[in-house]
């Protein structure tokens, strides 16, 4: 639990209280300690708050009511986002209590899809400082910057360089919205104390010309740092992080594909870290596929997979499917043979010049297509792949809205009664197909999941709930398990375990109705279930290691933060 200013103590009678040493406006301006109108008469007296608040203290429930009214009176999704962010910056306890009472309604506001718009409009909507902006000019002084967070014991950092924000691309300094949103889900979903969370934006410039042309742009108005200079900068950032935030787990988020793979490979043995787009996405998608195979009464090894989009998400998904196939006993070669990846040039064949390193393992021999009818020799697009290969699982990680068409889904029905069609790209406008179209094209037979949230769809008089295949069902749990256990390396096996645990969580009734993911409203229960499974695996893999002799439930409970007010006593 939190140290320093945010301690929880018990007195001799067993009454819990928080020892607080600050007072007056300093206390009201501390987002982790502020109770605002919730300070009692006694606390107002003890903490020098007289005259600083409207006279009548309010109950927590009334504060929540007022906050919810404020949320509802905001007239658009972005206004609601700004309302919630402002509340978060004033009073985190109230913010998380409100969120936890309205998870389904508010997650799409603080997270995908609205957070995408907030990142795009960042410079025009900026309100208050949060997190760290690390640049080439200040990276060497991270020690000094870290002092602002002294006493908070940073345990989880989500960092982006903003080059691949969702499917929206390079958003420069505006990408900061993503670490802030992801970390809110760490607290909401995994109970991590908000004081332990640090959002970081690495501002290395931007290649987004619209931002560079915008006089209001708040980031460094220069082209992106690249090559050796970029690598050196990232290295400095990691070394400084290890030094000044020695307890932190590092989550890489929304880096462009090559940097995503390179940074992960370079540092995963050096600092407990993972790339959410690669590994979190891989695990969540495998879970959905496992659920769908249960619906179909088939195995993973009976499927043929087309992963549309061969970047961080797509190759991460391919890697995790590969691991799932191996776990089922399928051979390396047979597993590779069943996974096709496509990028902007179509199916990845081995005749490509300058093929990116991370795509090699799924490149298919071009001879495979020798008898395919192709518009262009040795090149196959998605239609041509599905015309020639009995694809049963179609996964979208391309960021290309509307890329999945009727002919793709219809053709899959020739190969299987229940095709899996997961358009996973975010935000909503980048989704490869609308769920209602997929149901129409497949006469309700497709098993559908999307990355962004969608309302239920009615087809042929029957309602369908659209499962959200989003890494939110994985990263808070894996991050929590890492923090709780103190493991030094986050492994592929931890993600595979998380994936099977998530699949296990989905009740048979949901599967019967064709839905392979839990409701977002269950995020906390899901995260606890998945984190437990990962902790168990850590314990079993290394019985003498960091989880030796520890009771998992107790360890988890000791890390849980609840958004409630404790009485304050002056120290
Ligand atoms: N649901 C989730 O949890 C989740 C997780 C991660 C990423 N995503 C989404 O996946 C998308 C991609 O993210 P990323 O981080 O992998 O990006 P990325 O840039 O690393 O990869 C995008 C890939 O799509 C390919 N592509 C682009 N245009 C294409 C086209 N016309 N046809 C086929 N392929 C094309 C690119 O070549 C690249 O291989 C984004 O929209 C993102 O929101 C979703
Ligand atoms: O942020 C999300 O909603 C999921 C994922 O990390 C993405 O980049 O799209
Ligand atoms: Mn992401």
TrEMBL record:
List of residues binding (S)-malate: 426, 470
Binding site for a divalent metal cation: 253-254, 277
Keyword field: Metal-binding, NAD, Oxidoreductase
Required cofactor(s): Mn(2+); Mg(2+)
SMART domains given in the database record: malic, Malic_M
Active-site residue list: 111, 182
Limits of the Malic enzyme N-terminal domain: 88-268
Domain of life: Bacteria
Span of domain Malic enzyme NAD-binding: 278-539
Species name: Corallincola holothuriorum
Cofactor binding summary note: Divalent metal cations. Prefers magnesium or manganese.
One Gene Ontology molecular-function label: NAD binding
A Pfam family: Malic_M
Name listed for the protein in its UniProt record: NAD-dependent malic enzyme
Entry similarity comment: Belongs to the malic enzymes family.
A GO BP entry: malate metabolic process
């Amino acid at each position: 639990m939190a140290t320093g200013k945010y301690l929880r103590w018990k007195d001799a009678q067993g009454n819990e209280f928080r020892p607080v040493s600050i007072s007056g406006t300093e206390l009201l301006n501390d987002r982790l300690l502020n109770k605002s109108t919730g300070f009692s008469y006694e606390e107002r007296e003890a903490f020098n708050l007289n005259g600083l608040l409207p006279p009548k203290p309010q109950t927590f429930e009334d504060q929540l009511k007022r906050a919810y009214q404020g949320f509802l009176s905001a007239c658009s999704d972005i206004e609601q986002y700004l309302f919630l962010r402002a509340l978060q910056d004033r009073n985190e306890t109230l913010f998380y209590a409100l969120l936890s009472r309205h998870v389904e309604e508010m997650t799409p506001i603080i997270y995908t899809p609205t957070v995408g718009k907030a990142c795009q409009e960042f410079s025009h909507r900026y309100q208050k400082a949060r997190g760290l902006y690390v640049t080439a000019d200040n990276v060497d002084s991270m020690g000094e910057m870290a002092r602002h967070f002294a006493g908070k014991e940073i345990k989880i950092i989500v960092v982006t360089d903003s080059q691949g924000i969702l499917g929206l691309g390079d958003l420069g300094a505006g990408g900061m919205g993503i670490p802030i949103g992801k970390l809110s889900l760490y607290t909401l979903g995994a109970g991590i104390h908000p004081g332990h969370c640090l959002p970081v934006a690495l501002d290395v410039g931007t290649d987004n010309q619209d931002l560079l042309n915008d006089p209001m742009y708040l980031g460094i108005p220069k082209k992106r740092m690249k090559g050796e200079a970029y690598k050196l900068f990232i290295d400095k950032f990691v070394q400084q992080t290890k030094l000044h935030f020695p307890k932190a787990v590092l989550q890489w988020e929304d880096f462009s594909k090559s940097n995503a793979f390179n940074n992960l490979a370079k540092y995963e043995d050096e600092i407990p870290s993972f790339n959410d787009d690669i590994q979190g996405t891989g695990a969540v998608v495998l879970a959905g596929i496992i659920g769908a195979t249960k619906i179909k009464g088939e195995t993973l090894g009976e499927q043929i997979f087309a992963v549309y989009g061969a970047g961080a998400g797509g190759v991460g998904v391919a890697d995790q499917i590969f691991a799932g196939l191996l776990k089922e006993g399928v051979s390396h070669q047979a597993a590779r043979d069943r996974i096709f990846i496509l990028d902007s040039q179509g199916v990845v064949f081995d005749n490509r010049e300058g093929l990116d390193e991370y795509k090699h393992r799924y490149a298919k021999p071009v001879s495979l297509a020798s008898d395919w009818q192709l518009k262009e020799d040795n090149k196959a697009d998605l239609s041509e792949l599905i015309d020639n290969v009995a694809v049963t699982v179609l996964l979208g990680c391309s960021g290309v809205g509307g890329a999945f068409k009727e002919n793709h889904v219809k053709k899959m029905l020739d190969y299987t009664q229940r095709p899996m069609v997961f358009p996973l790209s975010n935000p909503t406008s980048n989704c490869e197909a609308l769920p209602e179209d997929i149901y129409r094209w497949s006469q309700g037979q497709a098993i559908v999941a999307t990355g962004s949230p969608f309302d239920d769809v009615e087809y042929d008089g029957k309602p369908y709930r659209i499962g959200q295949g989003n890494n939110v069902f994985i990263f808070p749990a894996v991050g929590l398990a890492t923090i709780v256990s103190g493991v030094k390396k986050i492994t592929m096996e931890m993600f595979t375990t998380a994936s099977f645990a998530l699949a296990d969580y989905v009740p048979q009734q949901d599967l019967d109705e064709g839905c392979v993911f839990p409701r977002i409203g269950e995020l906390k229960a899901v995260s606890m279930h998945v984190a437990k499974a990962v902790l168990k695996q850590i314990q079993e893999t290394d019985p003498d290691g960091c989880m030796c002799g520890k009771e998992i439930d107790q360890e988890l409970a000791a890390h849980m933060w609840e958004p409630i007010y404790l009485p304050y006593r002056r120290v």
